[in-house]
Amino acid sequence: MSQGAPVPEHQQRQITDEQFHAATLIWKYHQMGHELRPCSAAIGLGSHDLGVATAAVDLFRAGLFPVVVFSGGNSPTTRARFPRGEAVHYREHALSLGVPAEAIIVESKAANTGQNITFSRELLAEARVEVQSLLLISKPYMERRSYATCRKLWPEAEVVCASEPLELDDYIKSIGDEKLVVDMLVGDLQRVIEYPKLGFAVEQDVPGDVYDAYERLLGAGFDSRLIST
């Protein structure tokens, strides 16, 4: 499970039931629901969440890929947690859980999802890994955005998305900040909507109930992770 401070019982629900229901709709939308299958390679997308590396270890043990690129440098939100860089800490975590060093490639410069994909593709080519299919491993609420980004930047590859199998309640407990998690769900949905207009990703259909939930949460002030448009 993802690492994070435990949340005292009386602090676990600081938002209303209606807001939690709206957040759950968005949470489920972000997850692609792909059937997992063996792929040519995997990319573990860097973030604040060490659970991405844990999920990669589980998937490697299941025989779903022979090599993984852990991709990510540092950002204002991860520098304190991963001072040596996201990918470096992911690698160390995977090694500690028994993944052999030769199965891991470190990409330590990427500062966004587009760079995660682009730089990882370059390293896989340098390593002479022929990629026909790609397992993208991300935070649970980042599956759809990473999928849309990869389809734009690497359209030849068949993309399968994966993440830790967590429900929203469990993820909130692992992170330790309910408001922040909902802000991140809203922020990622805004990116799913806006990035195709900027040429960063392919377009994704957003069901009406999911869009309504997004607007309700925006109106309630869950907006700290929005981008300027």
From TrEMBL:
Coiled coil region boundaries: none
Domain of life (superkingdom): Bacteria
Occurrences of domain DUF218 (ranges): 52-156
Stated name of the protein: YdcF family protein
